[in-house]
Fold this sequence. Notes:
Blueprint: E1 3-4, E2 8-10, E3 13-15, E4 22-26, E5 33-38, H1 42-57, H2 67-83, H3 85-96, H4 100-103, H5 110-124, E6 128-132, E7 138-145, E8 148-152, H6 158-172, E9 175-179, H7 186-198, E10 205-207, H8 212-220, E11 226-230, H9 233-246, E12 250-253, E13 259-262, H10 270-281, E14 294-298, H11 302-315, H12 334-349, E15 353-356, E16 373-376, H13 383-386, E17 393-399, H14 402-410, E18 419-421, H15 425-433, E19 441-442, E20 460-461, H16 466-472, E21 474-480
Parallel strand pairs: 1-5, 8-9, 8-11, 9-10, 11-12, 13-14, 13-18, 14-17, 16-17, 18-19
Antiparallel strand pairs: 2-3, 4-5, 6-7, 7-21, 12-20, 15-16
Helix pairs in contact: 2-5, 2-6, 2-7, 3-7, 5-6, 6-16
Amino acid sequence: MSAVREHFYIGGGWRSPASAATITVVSPNTEQAIGSVPDGTAADIDAAVAAARAAFDDPNGWSRWAPAQRADAMERLADALDKRAPQMIEAVSSQNGMPVAISEKLEAVFPQLLLRYYAGLLRQESFEETRPGLLGGSTLVTREPIGVVGAIVPWNFPQALASFKYAPGLAAGCTFVIKPSPETVFDSYVLAEAIDEAGIPAGVINIVPGGREVGAYLVEHPGVDKIAFTGSTAAGRSIAEACGRLLRPVTLELGGKSAAIILDDADLDLVRIGEQLFSATLLNNGQTCFLGTRVLAPRSRYQEIVDVFTGLAASLQVGDSLDPKTQIGPMASARQRDRVESYIAKGRNGGARITVGGGRPQGLDNGWFVEPTIFADVDNSSTIAQEEIFGPVLSLIPYCGDDEAIRIANDSTYGLGGSVWTSDHDRGVELARRVSSGTIGINNYLPDPTAPFGGVKSSGLGRELGPEALSAYTVAKSIYL
Length: 481
Ligand code: NAD
């Protein structure tokens, strides 16, 4: 993929940027420039917020449309995205190194799934009810769209994570300014073209790629009513502070360091569970927020589990993200590879034992590749067990008994995902209840559109997905009758 874009999608059309600055996109596979887009500035955000504001405030506009009319438009957007699936897969995978085998299942599918799911909810939901009161009268309780939303998304799943925000928000009647990460911009133009084709009214979704200053400017913009953020915990804290000061509603989907708890009765046959284990611990080159990157292994089966994970990591095909056979592609940026390699060095220096990987793969001299790496004998208090690495690196931590497994799992500042691996379903569910996290899977980890997704502790505030997310884009109003 190579592309040069010269405009932003603002107010339902292609608008010239306020400055001549550009973002150069560099291929993680080759380290060569593959194109550029304009770099958003405060003036571009002003224009995008003005367009979103006008669309929201239009008395005959999107927020006032009948729910079924919005649902129809959302389904048209899903259809327009379906048509563009090949471009979307290529755009995402050529920029962030996500293997196409993954982008074709997630980035080119999840947004449509969510748009259709929320369109379906919209057809069933009533946004108002009349309640008999206790004091003689009654109350008309309405749920109104919250307003203009600033949606700030990271590079790791740029389209799926944007749709976590705009799909429920559009259903509620909100309008959007989306700010993609500088690492993943081309895919946002594919989305813009689909929005255009679907006949979503002008200004309902506006897109301005840019860096963190532009993101921070959007967060504080007086024309914005809510911020929906996915990204690092450090950025989330600073956004939360700004939103606290402004009393602006905010959802924060942040980092994680989840536990994959292997119980002593787990089925560890890679033929049967290899795909699920891979998805729960290493998906997208390890650059996924919910992964169980701390693998808790019972001492009674410790050596066997070290061998299973060593075998799994050694078997993975590392290569160009655009090759359908690739299972682990390059890191998204040089900075990201530096970060992963610095953690591998910290693990080594801290006394953990590397059983496989630890370096750069042979024969891949260009591109930001890192070998899938397994650390055994890791202490849960060590840096590699406490901090988010965001690469294909797992820490194996031994434990004795279920209580110790829970204690170690919960000994983390994060609480986003996790998994329990067992042949006894009920035992797995009971243990899952005791893990401090917003989500957790049994013998798998697969977020579903119908169920709330989000974190506790340093993993964030609020929930995306499910009917819960639709509520989060509305505000209740009581009209006493
Ligand atoms: P990042 O926080 O550096 O950037 C995320 C987005 O926020 C980008 O668009 C960036 O430009 C913008 N941004 C950065 N600082 C900002 C600020 N102060 N104000 C406003 N905008 C700002 O994160 P990243 O490196 O792009 O993404 C990786 C992180 O995202 C990891 O920590 C990962 O765990 C997290 N993540 C969380 C989830 C989740 O659902 N919980 C999902 C995916 C990724």
